[in-house]
TrEMBL record, chains A, B:
Protein name: TetR/AcrR family transcriptional regulator
Domain HTH tetR-type intervals: 11-71
Record keywords, A-Z: DNA-binding
Residue ranges: DNA binding: 34-53
Length: 193, 193
């Protein structure tokens, strides 16, 4: 029982560190921070960070996973009715957490190396995001000129690509451009009788 | 005259180094290479690289500029008739130079820092690319549901975003997805009488 209690405490402590890292990175950015600097702002020792995550790259990858949880990326979390609104809300929220947008983009590049801890994360996230988009946009109710998988890849690409533009020029209207594209590819259908 | 001759030689030598770096990076990648490693594969001394470019970041930025020259990114280089084909050719060519795609993506992220030498490059490239897209796609001949600036931002975002997907999963069909999107947003018009 003592062991089980200590395991549960470890899980809780790991969660606390993740939530704290998510908050700090969102507000202040990660700016190529060292493990020591991250530990300091999160309020733990570098040894504790390594104990719970193994490396800085693993911690960063888990921060992105935790963010996806908060953003409700899973297909089941969106209903068809509010998929467009929920998706645009995530993009709007991103404009308030520039540090997470920068971390996501940087890790997306680094993860091209199959040995990087974020490589499986990005493969998996991409598959889930496409499933979510294919389930919630298009379909018989809302026909598109693009097949569901192509539509999903395009929406994902625009989301990631607009972030690169926005990081260099923060006046780029990410949610406005995405809304215009969704409306162009998926014209709203008249409500049924 | 001697000075002028020596200046011209310097310009020519700088060009040679750039072309060599463009070729080597395209084929072998840049893989976080040190200045010393880059100098070695390009076939010059690290001191020569610093003399001509000032820093590794400046060299990388100039490599991307040189690539744009080769790709004919300037608006004047495309005629309206073959804009779609020329644009897709560039994307097809990109699949053969993974090292340049990786370098471009990594610098796009790093350039978010206004002090990075690639920051003005990306701002300027983005403006020229949008001008090129607005001039060559859409317009009265080929009306789109998106206004020209939004259309340009979307096409640029899809291009950059598909690269992130492709680096992680090389089976992603970048030219095929882009072609489908252009056709969906800009349906080919029937030839006039």
């Amino acid at each position: 029982m003592a062991r089980r209690g200590s395991y549960a405490k470890g899980v809780a402590r790991r969660e606390e560190i993740l939530e704290s890292a998510l908050d700090v990175i969102g507000r202040k950015g990660y700016q190529n921070a060292s493990l020591k600097e991250i530990a300091e702002v999160v309020g733990v020792t570098p040894a504790a960070l390594l104990h719970y995550f193994g490396s800085k790259e693993e911690l960063f990858t888990e921060v992105l996973r935790k963010r996806d949880e908060h953003d409700g990326l899973d297909p089941s979390a969106l209903s068809a009715d509010d998929a467009r609104g929920a998706f645009l809300d995530v993009i709007r929220h991103n404009t308030e957490v520039p540090g997470l947008v920068a971390l996501f983009s940087r890790l997306a590049v680094d993860a091209a190396d199959p040995a990087h801890p974020a490589h499986p994360y990005f493969l998996d996230r991409s598959a889930r995001l496409r499933e979510s988009i294919a389930d919630n946009f298009g379909g018989e109710q809302q026909p598109s000129a693009l097949d569901p998988d192509t539509l999903a890849r395009v929406i994902q690409a625009v989301s990631d690509g607009l972030q690169l533009q926005w990081m260099i020029d923060p006046t780029v209207d990410m949610p406005g451009i995405m809304a215009a594209l969704i409306d162009a590819l998926l014209p709203p259908t008249a409500p049924g009788p």
